[in-house]
Amino acid sequence: MKLGRREFRFAAAAAAAAMACVAAGIWQLDRLGQRRALNAVVAARLARPPLSVGRGTVPDSVRQRRLVATGVFDFARERVWPLRSYDGTPGVALVTPLRLADGSAVFVDRGWVPSPDAHHVNHASYLEAATATVEGLGMIPPRGRFDVEIAALRDSVPYDLLPFILQETGTAAPRGLPRRWPAPALDNGPHLGYAIQWFSFAVIIVVGTVALLRKTTILASS
Q1: What is the pLDDT of residues 77-99, one digit of tens each?
Q2: In this structure, what is the dihedral angle of CA atoms 118, 119, 123, 127, given to the nearest 10 degrees?
Q3: 189: Cβ–Cβ under 8 A, 6 or more apart, which residues?
Q4: What's the whole-model pTM score?
């Protein structure tokens, strides 16, 4: 199949596009490998026995680790994490200090509640038992925009605040609210699907280009 100058330029452009698609697919496979490696680390940490929270608990020991804490909620100093949606419904997360027996306190993310403006909520509607044993995951703030700033609140409370957040999991609250956050998803994410798409695009470009050039040369020689 002899190519003219115009067909050669078209074939070169198609080859470059196909190579770019292959490179994007390889990049997605690399992202998939990174995600799987991170998932393995998180799964290993979650498989460990729950860590009991106290004054001596340091942030490095709680990251993606199951935690347990027993104390008394200080609902009067509860904060919200605004702009939190659940299944498309606007709301906030309720973040409440839990005073521990040793005199320290840990902020507990008790879960999501609806809020039309995603900023304000009637806190009294979502009170739970003041004395509680809470289980959840250790998180180092900020977990995202507008998260509770623990360091900025230390001077406004009469107890020592631990420098991490316990994101509550487990049994649902009365009436289903606050709605606890789900456990982290340890899946492959979209990377494998994206890689297959990019490789498919490369195949389509190559096959389509060869077919088009073959048809062009046949017409030119007839």
Answers
A1: 999 999 999 889 999 999 999 99
A2: 50
A3: 32, 35
A4: 0.76
